[in-house]
Specification:
Largest sheet: 5 strands, mixed
Structural class: mainly alpha
Number of helices: 27
Shape: globular
Distance between the termini: 72 Å
Helix content: 55-70%
Radius of gyration: 24 Å
Strand content: 5-15%
């Protein structure tokens, strides 16, 4: 019943909504400068295609990096001598980051040379990425734009998943269209749906994996188990956070235990097919790098922070590069990161960071609809179908797992929850029978559309109207939530229009992008800026909120702000 043909009117609305989504994403894709991680991921993906597998950015699975690099393969890319030296291993930094622990000299950790499988070329990958895009050998803007277009296609694909998921669950075109509209006008989807990062890629694949798993629970067949396993494998080679699918699958299977036991196909056979199909995808993507990790002396393993589980099961962890990246990701999560929330800095983060970030980075209307949808779902829990239960359960579990992480640097890490919330709300709509709620829903949806439309095209800077919008965003969150180096081009335009010939700069972004735009500048620290007697000073919001800049915030008022994120001061 739910797979019946879509009416022409519904199809037209779907196409229109997706066209709006593409339109909202294309302008930022061309106008935003490369954010902090994009050059690294794009260049790593290019090297993977050209035979240098896993040298750069091994902490991420390869597919999410290779996809946006596809357009670059047809651009006759040239590597500068310095970039080529990094690829060949003839140049590099004097330091490296072990798998876990503080930065060390690479010669201390690898006395025989850095041509070692366990070496993590983190600083080299970041430098290579900046050279690859911005050293002048290639058209950096063109490379970034076309790579971002691949990401936009994935974002559109998520919209289709949301629509068909809700339509399948409810048989209600209106509910499915509302869910799609909530995704199209989700500021976090618009902020990250055009960026070359692993976040939108894993969101696309995890949404597809959970959809296919829900269909498997609904009607267990061998074909559905294989399809689910394949899509799950795709998610696993997008980003390591996709391993959270495992506890989601286990919990959802437990909730459906009685129904599954009554099916003719044994549960172990279905589970085995899912696992084998997922592992098969990993093997295909990592082909032909199937050899186990080489042995490592215990003393060196301890110095590098290689975890015990990796050493113990080393010969079984195939493909080895996948598990190396997984270990690096776990090490990062365990070590923590410099985090900022509501005026405070912490290295270990806050357990409540992600719920707060979700509120701060969402329109009020969306938060209200989440509450309405969740309450409706819980009131009708006994009659809820597998597809609806999957959406709410997976979203809740992912949020709970995220709250255990010490890395609190962006709502983007919560991006896989967004389409699930849209699905959950959409599934609940047909059962929202209260006259008041029925009248409120169109108002809430219109409210969200207007709020998001008014924020165009600065979606990375979006903040809830409840806290004053983007104008006040830096008071609550920074980094990839707000100021991620995306406004260098806008800085160039501002300086040109005002004939400002030179600036002092503390920029939270890629310095190569500043040089690429030929912006005359001197990079300064907060202490150095304190000594400036006269001149123009530009400070990124992510830097300005650090304690060392307290003196500037307390004693000077910015003359202007560029796209909310770059604070302009005229010192004299």
């Amino acid at each position: 019943m739910h797979w019946n043909l879509i009416s022409r009117k519904t199809l037209l609305i779907v196409v229109t909504l997706l066209a709006i989504l593409a339109g909202l994403l294309l302008d930022p894709a061309s106008q935003d400068s490369a954010t902090v991680d994009e050059t690294t991921l794009l260049s790593a993906g290019y090297t993977y295609w050209t035979g240098h597998r896993y040298l750069f950015a091994p902490e991420h699975p390869p597919l999410s990096q290779m996809l946006p690099a596809i357009p670059s393969l047809g651009m006759n890319i040239k590597l500068s001598p310095n970039a080529q030296a990094l690829v060949d291993g003839r140049a590099g930094y004097s330091w490296t980051r072990p798998w876990f622990g503080p930065v060390r000299s690479w010669q201390e950790l690898f006395p025989q040379g850095r041509d070692n499988w366990y070496y993590w070329a983190l600083p080299e990958s970041q430098l290579f990425g900046q050279m690859f895009v911005y050293d002048g050998a290639n058209d950096g803007d063109r490379m970034i734009f076309w790579g971002r277009c691949v990401q936009i296609l994935l974002t559109l694909g998520i919209g289709l998943f949301v629509f068909f998921w809700v339509r399948r669950a409810t048989g209600n075109d209106w509910a499915a269209l509302v869910a799609l509209a909530l995704w199209v006008f989700n500021p976090n989807a618009l902020a990250h749906g055009h960026l070359i990062t692993t976040d939108i890629s894993v969101t696309f694949a995890m949404t597809g994996a959970l959809f296919t798993f829900a269909l498997l629970l609904e009607k267990p067949t061998l074909r559905r188990a294989i399809v689910c396993g394949i899509v799950t494998g795709v998610a696993l080679v997008m980003k390591h956070t996709a391993v959270t699918l495992a506890p989601m699958y286990l919990l959802l299977t437990g909730l459906s235990g009685k129904q599954l036991k009554a099916q003719p196909i044994p549960l172990w056979k279905l589970a085995g097919l899912v696992v084998l199909a997922a592992w098969g995808v990993l093997m295909v993507v990592y082909f032909p790098h199937w050899s186990p990790a080489p042995p490592l002396p215990e003393v060196q393993a301890n110095a590098l922070g290689v975890p015990d589980w990796f050493q113990t099961f080393r010969t079984l962890l195939i493909p080895a590069d996948y598990f190396k990246g997984f270990a690096l990701t776990l090490g990062h999560s365990k070590a923590g990161h410099e985090n900022y929330l509501c005026g405070e800095w912490s290295h270990d983060g806050w357990w409540y960071y992600y719920p707060v970030a979700l509120f701060l980075k969402s329109p009020v209307a969306f938060i209200v609809m989440i509450i309405l949808g969740a309450v409706t779902f819980l009131r009708n829990l006994k009659s809820a179908g597998k597809l609806e239960v999957t959406a709410w359960t997976a979203a809740t579990l992912f949020l709970g797992i995220a709250m255990t992480s010490n890395v609190n640097i962006g709502i983007r890490h919560l991006l896989p929850v967004m389409p699930l919330l849209c699905v959950g709300i959409g599934c609940a709509i047909p059962r929202m029978t209260s006259p008041f709620v029925k009248k409120a829903l169109p108002i809430l949806l219109s409210w969200q559309i207007i709020i998001v439309a008014l924020a165009y095209p600065l979606y990375l800077q979006f903040f809830s109207e409840a806290v004053g919008g983007a104008q006040n965003g830096h008071r609550y969150l920074v980094d990839s939530n707000y100021d991620w180096g995306q406004d260098a081009k806008r800085l160039k335009t501002f300086l040109t229009e005002r004939s400002i010939q030179h600036i002092y700069l503390d920029y939270f972004g890629t310095q190569y992008s500043i040089e690429y735009l030929k912006i005359p500048n001197i990079r300064v620290t907060a202490e150095q800026a304190h000594q400036i007697k006269q001149g123009w000073l530009v400070v990124s919001a992510s830097q300005l909120m650090r304690p060392e800049w307290d003196w500037l915030r307390e004693s000077h008022t910015p003359l202007a702000r560029i796209a909310y994120t770059l604070f302009i001061y005229h010192l004299q």
